[in-house]
């Protein structure tokens, strides 16, 4: 039996940044919100129940979902936000490092989704919002592996949405550009350095840091997540913020060669 009359949202990675802002915004929008963090006793927004979960661990994910069901009896919305970044030349990461990145950013999304889908199928309704990125639909030099995880999430989400529509469940993507979080400070670095990339890497480091400082606030992305969560006729993709909307438009309508030049100029790479 449902223990709450309010819709129940589950937000991964809710202890900081976009996840924190999303949990807070969903709670303000009328959801009963559960947030997750990899570390026990992490603080979340006021009114949000924080639980521990490692999205790379099957047992941890199963326990999380069981605990939420025991508390409120339902899950109406899953926001797959937990993720990590990796900055460096693609060649500079070993296969093991790439696999670890995919385990969080892609298989973590799949684990969480597979855990809640039986509940949503029984309810005959549900919404899944997956955090992608503008780097999920454009090239991302020196973020090639991170970008690859977001491209994977895009393809997975688009295909899954087609599978689930007849069951009353929808899947949507939220695509931020640069956001004012500690993303750049928490980036994983390659596990080997190659001198040939050093000069361009330094320029990219400055460009990315500046872009993040001028980026959108997490609250702007959170507003987009709420929009995707409550829309009666949800779209597949929701660019979050002015830059993300501009890039999405340019990618669709600007000739490939011109877009390539513009991207390299913006990132301070030789054209």
Automatic annotation (TrEMBL):
Pfam (any one): adh_short
Family (UniProt): Belongs to the short-chain dehydrogenases/reductases (SDR) family.
Family annotation (NCBIfam families): PRK06179.1
Natural source organism: Azospirillum melinis
Name the record gives this protein: SDR family NAD(P)-dependent oxidoreductase
Keywords attached to this entry: Oxidoreductase
Classification via InterPro entries: KR_dom (IPR057326), NAD(P)-bd_dom_sf (IPR036291), SDR_fam (IPR002347), SDR_oxidoreductase (IPR051911)
Keyword Oxidoreductase: yes
Domain Ketoreductase: 7-196
Gene3D superfamilies assigned to the protein according to its UniProt record, in alphabetical order: NAD(P)-binding Rossmann-like Domain
């Amino acid at each position: 039996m449902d223990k709450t009359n309010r819709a129940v949202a589950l937000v991964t990675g809710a202890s900081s940044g976009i996840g924190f802002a999303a949990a807070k915004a969903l709670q303000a929008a009328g959801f009963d919100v559960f947030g997750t963090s990899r570390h026990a006793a992490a603080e979340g927004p006021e009114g949000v129940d924080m639980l521990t979960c490692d999205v790379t661990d099957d047992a941890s994910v199963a326990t999380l979902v069981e605990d939420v069901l025991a508390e409120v009896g339902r899950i109406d919305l899953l926001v797959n936000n937990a993720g990590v970044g990796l900055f460096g030349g693609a060649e500079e990461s070993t296969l093991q490092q790439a696999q670890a990145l995919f385990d969080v950013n892609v298989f973590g999304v799949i684990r969480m989704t597979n855990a809640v889908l039986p509940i949503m199928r029984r309810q005959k309704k549900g919404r899944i919002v997956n955090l992608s990125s503008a780097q999920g639909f454009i090239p991302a030099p020196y973020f090639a592996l991170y970008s690859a995880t977001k491209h994977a999430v895009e393809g997975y989400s688009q295909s899954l949405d087609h599978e689930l529509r007849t069951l009353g469940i929808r899947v949507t993507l939220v695509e931020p550009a640069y956001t004012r979080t500690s993303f750049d400070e928490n980036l994983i670095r390659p596990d080997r350095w190659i001198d040939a990339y050093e000069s361009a890497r330094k320029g990219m480091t400055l460009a990315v840091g500046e872009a993040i400082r001028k980026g959108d606030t997490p609250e702007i992305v959170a507003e987009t997540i709420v929009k995707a969560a409550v829309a009666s006729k949800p779209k597949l993709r929701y660019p979050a913020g002015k830059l993300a909307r501009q890039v999405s438009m340019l990618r669709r309508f600007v000739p490939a060669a011109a877009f390539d030049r513009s991207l390299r100029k913006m990132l301070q790479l030789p054209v």
